[in-house]
Specification:
By secondary structure, this protein is mainly alpha-helical. The chain has two domains: about 10-55, no CATH class; about 60-184, no CATH class. The chain contains nine helices and two strands. It has helices at about 5-10, 30-55, 60-80, 80-90, 90-105, 110-120, 135-145, 160-175, 180-184, and strands spanning about 150, 155. It has a two-stranded antiparallel ribbon.
Length: about 180
């Protein structure tokens, strides 16, 4: 049987004039195009890897704390916009990190910014979903009860506005169902 181009054209089969050694298959990319795309992706990965190794820098612990302060401040500012509250609540890991930073009372600026964040999102928080729910309530009561004294062993000076904010945070936490057992 002899191959007839006219009959093949009628049935829908066409010869690929440019790449006769790579026949075109129906609905799939030709192998040579797949190979070209794969090579382009490999080159892009190599370039990215070179950039990462070139841009890597050693950072001190103090610089990391400063970066952490900036990140917490940005998140704090985002929580003052009501539309952002639900998006932040969906990020369980971020909420856990913020709660643990607040519970640790490491730095006054970080603690106060975390308190602002927690106060803004506390009406949506369910303490059973947070790893450190009991510790969060204990830290709020520690700041609240300490008054004008030093809080915890880290020497945080507690102001009246901080006490008011702790009360507001506890009030908002009490609005969510399931939080009563933690607050009692």
């Amino acid at each position: 049987m002899k191959f007839d181009e006219k009959q093949a054209a009628k049935s829908g089969f066409q010869l690929n004039k440019k790449h006769e050694e790579f026949p075109r298959s129906r609905g799939r990319k030709p192998i040579y195009i797949k190979m070209q795309e794969q090579n382009a992706l490999d080159e892009l990965r190599k370039k990215r890897k070179r950039l990462v190794t070139v841009l890597h820098q050693e950072v001190t612990e103090l610089e990391l704390v400063e970066h952490l302060k900036m990140i917490i401040l940005v998140i704090r500012n985002l929580t003052f916009i009501k539309q952002n509250e639900h998006h932040l609540i969906k990020c369980f890991k971020v909420v856990d990190i913020i709660c643990s930073l607040f519970v640790d009372l490491i730095d006054q600026e970080i603690t106060m910014n975390c308190l602002d964040i927690l106060t803004n999102i506390s009406k949506h928080l369910v303490l059973t979903d947070i790893n450190s729910g009991h510790l969060l309530v204990q830290a709020l009561f520690t700041l609240f009860c300490s008054g004008q004294y030093l809080a915890h062993e880290n020497g945080l000076y507690v102001k009246q506005s901080t006490i008011d904010q702790c009360v507001e945070c506890l009030r908002r936490l009490s609005l969510s169902a399931g939080n009563e057992e933690y607050i009692e």
